[in-house]
Design brief:
By secondary structure, the chain is mainly β. The protein contains 2 helices and 24 strands. It has a single domain, classed as TolB, C-terminal domain (Neuraminidase), CATH 2.120.10.30. It has an 8-stranded mixed beta sheet with strand order 18-19-20-21-1-24-23-22, with no helix packed on it. It has a 4-stranded antiparallel beta sheet with strand order 2-3-4-5, with no helix packed on it. Strands 6-7-8-9 form a 4-stranded antiparallel beta sheet, with no helix packed on it. The protein is globular, with a radius of gyration of 19 Å.
């Protein structure tokens, strides 16, 4: 069965009302009240909108106290509200649906959060990346790990990647290519399978492999404009990328999103410009495939899909920053 995600509204303007002018969207999600929260990395603030895009309020909690942040790393939906994670002080803050910080957790770790997810017990899942020079040959190691909130040691390692090169810049492809991951409301972990096209492994909270979601296809080639836009985006995101260039082939799994109450796992693949989704039931059955209509066809797109709604935005917009509200159409 084929369905379509359709843009029904958007938030963001080039000029006019400053509450609607977005600087740099680094996170957005629906919350249980039906509202939309947007994290702005340029203004370092949070903004709340109704589900149809009407501005409600904004909040700025910059500072160094436990319920404040220096730089927003991103936001993820959690229970009734959301969690903001911060890479400068390395902590995460739980918020309610009205942008009020409730409690913060300071994990005893020094490395940045990579693909941050909060587990149902408030532990967290992230890629733990480390760099070492062994015999003058740089080595990059990554472990997708679950950490208890008060421990520096991983309680579960779900997947490991490693590469050694003669030049540190040659390791950038591995860093960018970390497999996508997600966590559902029962603590199951979803991970794009390395080396297996368009497949997602499903793990129990203790790391036991319990299922594999797969809808095989043969990749084609991406548009040359998309390759150039991804290159510009990565340069803006990471500053130094050496001679790295994006893969011209259509992409494997780009992101994984969970709609727990609807029992759906959304697996994005193919392209940033022309995204497609395979949508599975939680029991592993492919329910439908999905394309997208109404988004700009010349911008990198990121999605947030949860129980309360579907959003998309460009981390590297050409015009002005906007968050798009989407609805599923038969």
């Amino acid at each position: 069965m084929q369905k379509t995600l359709v843009v029904i509204d958007s938030i963001g303007v080039v000029s006019g009302d400053t509450d609607l002018m977005l600087g740099k969207v680094i996170g957005a999600c629906f919350v249980s009240s039906g509202g939309i929260v947007i994290a702005d990395g340029m203004y370092q603030d949070l903004r709340l909108f109704t589900g149809n895009g009407i501005f409600v309020m904004r909040a700025n909690h910059t500072g160094s106290s436990p319920l404040e942040y220096m730089y927003i790393g991103g936001i993820v939906p959690y229970m009734d509200g959301f969690v903001l994670y911060e890479d400068y002080i390395r902590h995460y803050i739980f918020y309610d649906t009205l942008l009020t910080p409730v409690v913060s957790i300071y994990p005893p770790r020094t490395r940045p959060f990579e693909q941050f997810h909060v587990m149902p017990d408030s532990s967290y899942l992230t890629w733990d990346m480390s760099f070492a020079a062994n015999s003058n040959r740089p080595t990059l190691t990554g472990n997708l790990s679950r950490f208890d909130k008060d421990s520096t040691d991983a309680s579960v390692v779900f997947h490991s990647i490693q590469q050694t090169a003669s030049n540190p810049e040659d390791l950038f492809a591995l860093y960018v290519g970390k497999p996508a991951s997600a966590v559902d409301n029962d603590g199951r972990v979803y991970l794009a399978c390395s080396g297996v096209h368009n497949a997602v492994a499903v793990f129990a909270p203790d790391g036991t492999l319990i299922d594999t979601l797969m809808n095989p296809r043969e990749p084609g080639l991406r548009e040359s404009l998309e390759i150039e836009e991804e290159l510009l985006w990565r340069r803006a995101q990471y500053r130094v990328i050496g001679d790295w260039r994006p893969d011209p082939q259509e992409l494997d799994v780009i992101s994984i999103n969970i709609q727990g109450s609807q029992g759906r796992v959304w697996v994005q693949h193919t392209s940033y410009f022309h995204p497609e989704f395979d949508v599975y039931r939680l029991d592993g059955t492919l329910e439908f495939t999905c394309t997208v209509n109404g988004l700009p066809c010349d911008e990198i797109m990121v999605f947030s899909i949860n129980d309360d709604g579907i959003l998309a935005w460009s981390p590297y917009p050409k015009d002005c920053a906007r968050v798009y509200i989407l609805s599923l159409s038969e």
